[in-house]
Design goal:
Length: 353
């Protein structure tokens, strides 16, 4: 058995997990900073970095305590080295490199997006190749996942990420951060058919996304609405969520047709990232998959939002292929998945004392 410690600090969750190569999560802890950022209505990078620094060591200690083992049980340490808020990324990656050096363990650099992309293999053992819809606060992409480190991008957002759109709309209707779960909850009591909002790129060929026009339409709608009208707010939330689901389903259906054509061996549509927690979206994607003859896989909610189990798992997949990283691996604020292939040939470096 191979056991890897995974560390995630690229956004506003400080997370650690111990996962083995059978997919068993021995222990995992996630500490959300939501309350620290709430007064500012969004994530403040400097606060995030300091908070990761203040809590990471205790969190790792607690994760070991939960698993009932110590460093001697670990075979390698994996950490997110990007993309993300660079101050936080550096905190987690430097902690992991320092621990690797001190314990004489291999270090595995993990791209946060690859963590999301491979999470369905941790939860459901999905075989390569598969079609991936990655929807989070910073990303909105459709990709063919051919193998570890091998991604073919079908489409991406031309402006906002979908999670960002949820967060901005939540702010407009007076809900707190993060906006996605709050909008989903409010939408449950709303009438999704009351407001006819735009569905950018709907019906057009290709797999790209756009949400800026939809967000602007919501802003104009909110400006025309009485702020005390709670029912109208719920209707706006529901109408917005429906417009997003329609758009994503349309773009994903195009991608599914292309995927089936280009990858006849593939059989799955996988959704990942924080927005994959949205139940309305999941139901729509289920239908898109069925129509294309693909099986639909959505990892459990706790594996969709940021967590360290997915980082440990991506680390395990890389480690199994001999892809370990040197201790001078740089942290990157921007790091598209397609650039992983170029960097793939491994440095089989072990930390030198
Ligand atoms: O993957 P994630 O945890 O962090 C990033 O790497 O971005 O995604 C966070 C994003 C936020 O924008 C949040 O509002 C959104 O995912 N989100 C949701 C839901 N839960 C989280 N969006 C829609 N519906 C949800 N239930
Ligand atoms: Zn994420």
């Amino acid at each position: 058995m191979t056991l890897i410690l995974g560390i995630e600090t690229s956004c506003d969750e400080t997370a650690a997990a111990l996962v083995d190569d059978t997919g068993k999560i021995h222990a995992e802890r996630v500490l959300s900073q939501t309350r620290e950022h709430a007064p500012y209505g969004g994530i403040v990078p400097e606060i995030a970095a300091r908070s990761h620094l203040a809590h990471l060591e205790d969190l790792v200690r607690g994760t070991f305590a939960d698993a009932g083992c110590g460093w001697e049980a670990v075979d390698a340490i994996a950490a997110t080295t990007g993309p993300g808020l660079i101050g936080g990324v550096i905190v987690g990656a430097t902690f992991a490199k320092g621990a690797a050096l001190a314990r004489g363990l291999p270090f595995v650099s993990v791209n946060h997006l690859e963590g999301h992309a491979l999470s369905a293999r941790l939860s459901d053992r999905v075989p390569f190749p598969y079609l991936l819809l990655l929807v989070s606060g910073g990303h909105c992409q459709l990709l063919a996942v051919e193998d570890v480190g091998r991604y073919r991008r079908f489409g991406t957002t031309l402006d906002d990420a979908v999670g960002e759109a949820f967060d901005k709309v939540a702010k407009l209707v007076g809900l707190g951060y993060p906006g996605g779960p709050a909008i989903e909850k409010l939408a449950r009591s709303g009438n999704a058919k009351r407001f006819d909002l735009p569905r950018p790129l709907y019906g057009r060929p290709g797999c790209d996304f756009s949400f800026a026009g939809l967000k602007t339409a919501v802003r104009q709608l909110v400006e025309r609405t009485n702020p005390a009208d709670e029912a109208a707010k719920a209707d706006i939330a529901a109408s917005f969520q429906m417009a997003v689901a329609d758009t994503i389903a349309d773009r994903t259906a195009n991608a599914a047709r292309r995927f089936v054509r280009e990858f006849p061996a593939g059989g799955h549509l996988v959704v990942a990232g924080g927005v994959a927690a949205n139940q309305a979206l999941r139901m729509r994607l289920q239908r898109v998959a069925e129509d294309a003859g693909l099986a639909f896989v959505a990892p459990p909610l706790r594996l969709c939002t940021d967590n360290a189990a997915m980082i440990a798992w991506a680390g395990l997949e890389r480690f199994a292929r001999g892809l370990v990283s040197p201790l001078d691996t740089a942290c990157r604020p921007r790091w598209p998945l397609e650039e992983l292939a170029a960097a793939a040939p491994s440095h089989a470096a072990r930390p030198t004392p």
